[in-house]
Amino acid sequence: MPSPDDLSGRIVDALWKAGFFRLRGVLVGTLAFQTYAGPLGVKLAGRPLQTQDADFAQFWGISENIGDSTPPMMEVLRGVDPTFNSLSNISDPFVFTAYRNAARYRVDFLTPNRGSDDHQSRPARMKALGGASAQPLRHLDFLIHEPERSVLLTKGGVPVTIPRAERFAVHKLIVAVERRDQAKSAKDILQAATLIGALAIRRPLELAEAWKIAWGGGPQWKEKLEAGRERLPETARTALANVVARAAASSRRRRKQTAL
């Protein structure tokens, strides 16, 4: 089972101790991907595990109403590495959604954008994140809805909250299409393919349901899902198609039996 690099591990450990996961925060991105090895019984290795950043997400409504907060985020991060500094946001120089150290390791805080596209560039102030704000992103509400638990294998093991694996896999197909960085896009597809292969065996119904929910998101969702699916290796593309087809056939049989 994979373990993170030392700095990533210490950052996640520090946020856990600061209460981030207790406050219903979710670890996303490549560090979350590393934690699926245990729950899915799949071997993870190579380029899909490499990262120079850590991404954390929280719903704005939770942050606004939970009535608790982590310590100041700058204090938490500088407790790990004193060279961390906040990065100014173009839209609002007085709020900070990202932090970076002298080695250019980056920590980002994210939140779903459920409103207009105008909100994409406007940081959301997050009461529960100790002075940090968060960058609103499309499709993130799908990703972090009803997350699951896992462990990041650093030190004695850090308990983390992560997206459900099936939602992570489907979301990666969308993200891969949206990215301008082709290297990161290729890594997204590799991560999606790895999880789809495991989910087709371990959680086929859940994978089919996640695909169905995303497919129902509207024309733009469908367009991105189709484009992402076409980028999958043939084995993963076939596994996904088979899972979705079996789930659809099972649903038709249930409807027929109910009608009888």
Descriptive account of the structure:
The protein has eleven helices and nine strands. 49% of the residues lie in helices and 15% in strands. The longest helix has 26 residues. By secondary structure, it is of the alpha+beta class. Strands 1, 2, 3, 4, 5, 6 and 7 form a seven-stranded mixed β-sheet that branches. Helix 7 crosses helix 10 and helix 8 crosses helix 11.
Task: Jot down its keywords.
two-stranded antiparallel sheet, seven-stranded mixed sheet, 11 helices, 9 strands, globular, alpha+beta, 260 residues
Number of domains: 2
Residues in β-strands, percent: 5-15%
Cα distance spanning the termini = 49 Å
Range of helix content? 40-55%
Radius of gyration: 19 Å
Number of helices: 11
In terms of per-residue confidence, which ranges show pLDDT below 50 for 5 or more consecutive residues?
Answer: none
Order of helices and strands: HEHHEHHEEEEEHEEHHHHH
* Overall mean confidence score, pLDDT: 93
Shape, principal axes of CA atoms: globular
> Major β-sheet, in short?
7 strands, mixed
Q: What structural class should be given to the helix and strand makeup?
A: alpha+beta
Number of strands: 9
